[in-house]
Amino acid sequence: MGTLARDVAIIGVGQTRFGEHWNLTFRELGIEAGFRAMEDAGISSSRIEALYTGTMSSGLFLNQEHVSAMIAEVVGLTENQIPATRIEAAGASGGLAFHQAILDVASGLHDIVVVGGAEKMSDVVSNLATEFVASGADQAWEGLFGATMPSLFALMARKHMHDHGTTKEHLAQVAVKNHAHGAKNPLAQFQREITLNMAVNAPMVADPLGMFDCAPTSDGSASLVLCDMKTAKELSDDPIRVAGTGQGSDSLSLANRKEITSMRSTVAAARRAYEMAGIGPGDIRVAEVHDSYTISEIIAIEDLGFFEKGDGGFATERGETALNSTITVNPSGGLKARGHPLGATGIAQINELVLQLRGDADGRQVKDATVGLAHNIGGTGGTAVVNILEVV
Amino acid sequence: MGKALGVEAKSVPAPDEDAATISVMAARRALARSSIDPGEIGAIFVGSESHPYAVKPTATIVSAAIGATPVMTGADLEFACKAGTAGFQSCLGLVNSDDGQIPIRCALAIGADTSQGAPGNALEYSASAGGVAFIVGREDVIAEVGLTMSYTTDTPDFWRREGMKYPSHAERFTGVPAYFKHVEMGARQIMERMGTKASDYDYAVFHQPNGKFPLKISKSLGFNREQILAGLWTPRIGNTYSASMMMGLAGILDVARPGEKILAVSYGSGAGSDGFHLEVTDLISEYPRSKAPLVSEAAANGIEIDYATYSKFRKKLKMEGE
Amino acid sequence: MAVARHWRNQDQRYNLAGTRCKVCGGHFFPKTSMCPSCHRRSLGKLERFQFSGNGTISSFTIIHEGMPQYSSQVPYVIAYIDLEEGDHIIGQIVDSEPSEVEIGKKVEMVFRKLSEEGRSGTIQYGFKFRLTP
User: Fold this and answer.
1) DSSP state at residue A47
2) How confident is the model at residue B320 (pLDDT cuts 50, 70, 90)?
3) What is the spatial distance between Cα B25 and Cα B28, in angstroms, rounded to a whole number?
4) Cβ neighbours of C117 (radius 10 Å)
5) Gap between the Cα atoms of A8 and A245, Å rounded
6) Does the pLDDT of residue B305 top 90, yes or no?
7) B231 contacts B202 by C-beta, under 8 angstroms
8) Chain C partners within 8 Å of A127 (Cβ)
9) Do B61 and C125 touch (CB under 8 A)?
10) Is residue A216 a contact partner of residue A342, using CB atoms and an 8 Å limit?
11) B3 close to B231: Cβ distance less than 8 angstroms
């Protein structure tokens, strides 16, 4: 219980810049990151034994399902008829695809697999994107009654503010910090800093969440090469080990939760990942957490055990989550500034940790980072995946 | 224009309201004031000229939303502004029928509308939204219907052709040969048959297409201002069409005392009137009026909106994607 | 066309009809096939339960970028409501200015239009809430 049958490591990562890729098709976008990851790993596609893809809703955004076969085809992997699997868990699709690929390699079924995540969201107008993103929440009992995804997080935000004294400025501090980090990430969608004033006074989306409290809609893909530790050491000088992986679930609808200022799925996934890694939150120096909304980062850093419940906003205000402070949260810029192509997000988080742990993160490098945590959620937290990586 | 019509304000439905939602709310409020199990309701008639569907009954929506289904009947009625009272008469017929033949002891009559007038037309100043529900039965009666009679001719004073968004009317022809003739004849035939005169009634209520017509007809029938004030709502909320006279009657029942007599006459263009002679029973003293808002409370409960908001709400503007 | 999909939820949406577990006495909305506390013991012991529609606002938001079906209503209020019999629900607060809505205020159920399938399709009706006068 709670352990992997054999050690698993990452030997290559690749990502497109996130943003609006008007001239790229979903296929072109999807394979771009895969090629970069294989190049980074220094292996040819013939070595790939299985393929995992995290995509939330190519069906709604592009009217195309069965993207596992599509990716296998465009990457040129149909020659060997390798297993190709698409994983869907709304915004956690990428993180969950990674989790499933770990289980695959750890089981001994395959030695080298590629895990990708991709989404193309810019082909639909904004109110349709609002509706499609909301399909990750409960359409029968939330969406039909007018609730958008940001509005559900706004309900959490107002409750958090009411119960814990979190302020609109605290929320804004998350955005300001993540934009500052994103400005140092050449693959981020937004590479400019914003001021607290801009964030606080931005147009409202779902009060108290304004435009700068919400991650953007994005096109993008991210990919990585995963293998067993023995193979990893043969192929790579600096493999990054999967120290722990955990998944948790909760109700699809927010109304069926006992409380809305904490996500039990995150708490459970974190507990499982920490136990497997044999460490605790105090050992984490760098974390990529799911800040689809500013309130989600505040709730996440509490649920992951970095700060006491209710202290997330205050800790952010104290600067404890900024680059090279107490714990660096979202050095990539997070979903807010790096961008949030739904299915790609979970993989991009892992990739950022790999760069950080290798010491390749340039201007946003976290000093002495040896262990990192990634946290990815779907919908309002119906799925949560926590992965912990460490240098070998 | 408002002054000429005697209408100071009119009620407007929110974008998520229609004749069905208003009917349901009226029916639920009527039930809140009664001890009837919704399952006992054997018939529901919804009178409206703004049913949300051209084909598919509003009555079934109401039935399901109050828990009256499935052993019951229901139908939607249309007779311009008197469709609600036409349903009232149908209910009276059913509940007073032989139990062996039609075992219905309790029925629901609803008049509800979200009527519209074309922008700029005089109708736009008065056409409003509202709904009233009466539970009609043989037990726990708070007002007994002593007589109901109708007066009907084929008089095209107001109409809306199939598929048209706004109704048309024959301007001044809607007055003397239409409203005044039918309401007057309707009222007179009731009083003649009952052997009553205007002074015998504590209250009178007539259909209220605007604030002026009911004042004029009541005067010519010999009623004074005191008799009609409790039932006069159009000046404050506009013409609620199928609900208009029923709203007035509901307003009267909000204040009426045992033994008081009421003359009520609706009018529907096309044209006809339904007259009712009612007497308030002793049970009105125990009637739990406070379990639902009074007409006066509901009328005071609105939020004022400007014409731009009204235009958006009533889909008078072409919006994105239309 | 999703006529049947909406139709089969009609009783729940029109009447706020959920489930009562006869084992533990818990009330649940939407209706459930298994009590989340009693699990298998609740099989065959669940009954229809109609909530009163009275509740208290636990949290709320004012939506400025709404679902396409609600575009004519922006800004509109969505609240997280604690129902008086237990369980929670998410619903729209109508008939008041957004500035009047506060955590802790009482609400009651009203019957409104939720959506429509284009200009020629069916109309979906169901519960919304308003501040209790």
Assistant:
1) G
2) low
3) 5
4) 14
5) 11
6) no
7) no
8) 65, 67-68, 71
9) yes
10) no
11) no
What are B16-72's pLDDT values in tens digits?
Answer: 999 999 999 999 999 999 999 999 999 999 999 999 999 999 999 999 999 999 999
ipTM above 0.95, yes or no: yes
Residues of B with a known catalytic role: 49, 81, 207
Query: Is A137 domain-assigned?
Result: no
Low-confidence ranges of chain A (pLDDT < 50): none
Let me know if residue C67 belongs to a domain. yes
Residue with tokens 């200022």: A261
The band of C1, judged by pLDDT with boundaries at 50, 70 and 90, is low
| Chain A contact set for C92 (CB, 8 A) | 145-146
Name subunits touching B (3+ CB pairs < 8 A): C
**Chain A from 9 to 38: CB within 8 A of any C CB:** none
- Give Dmax (Cα) for chain A: 58
Which structure tokens are listed for A110?
Answer: 């395959």
> Are A42 and A94 within one domain?
yes
Decide: helix, strand or coil at residue B117: coil
Is A1 part of a structural domain of the chain? no
Tell me which chain B residue has its CA closest to the CA of residue C13.
Answer: B65
A70 and A187 share one domain? no
Give the three-class secondary structure for A85.
Answer: strand
Range of the domain at A234: 8-125+218-240
Which residue, B52, B204, B30, is CA-closest to B134?
B30
What's phi and psi for A41, nearest 5 deg? Answer: -80, -20
Strand A50-54 versus strand A112-120 pairing type: parallel
Q: Can you tell me the distance from the alpha carbon of B167 to that of C100, in angstroms, rounded to the nearest whole number? A: 37
Distance CA B235, CA A195 (A): 54
Residues A76 and A167 in one domain: no
Q: Give, as one character, the DSSP assignment of residue A171.
A: H
* Closest CA of chain C from B322, distance in Å: 10
| Number of domains forming the structure of chain A | 2
Average predicted confidence (pLDDT) for chain C: 95
B217 closest CA partner among B173, B249, B244, B178: B178
What DSSP designation does A203 have? P
- The CA distance from A48 to A53, in Å, is 14
Structural domain of C77: 52-131
Q: Which residues of C touch A212 (CB under 8 A)?
A: none
- Alpha helices, DSSP H, located in C16-50: none
Q: Which of B278, B149, B298, B133 is nearest to B204 (CA)?
A: B278
How many helices and strands in chain A, by DSSP H and E?
14, 12
CATH of the domain at A190: 3.40.47.10
Give me the total of CB pairs closer than 8 Å, taking one residue from chain B and one from chain C.
57
Q: What integer best gives the mean pLDDT of chain B?
A: 94
Read off the pLDDT of each residue in B253-260 and give the average, rounded to a whole number: 98
Q: Do the Cβ atoms of A118 and A86 come closer than 8 Å?
A: no
Quick check: B88 and B134 in contact, CB under 8 A? yes
Residue A133 located in a structural domain: no
Structure tokens at B170: 């024959």
Q: Are residues A234 and A188 in the same domain?
A: no
Q: What is the DSSP string of B43-72?
A: EEEEE-S--S-SSS-HHHHHHHHHT--SSS
Name chain A contacts of C66, Cβ cutoff 8 Å: 130, 146, 148
CA distance B170 to B50: 20
Cα B217 to its chain centre, rounded Å, is 18
Distance CA A180, CA A182 (A): 6
Which structure tokens are listed for A207? 């009060």
Q: In this structure, is residue C114 part of a structural domain?
A: yes
DSSP label of B176: I
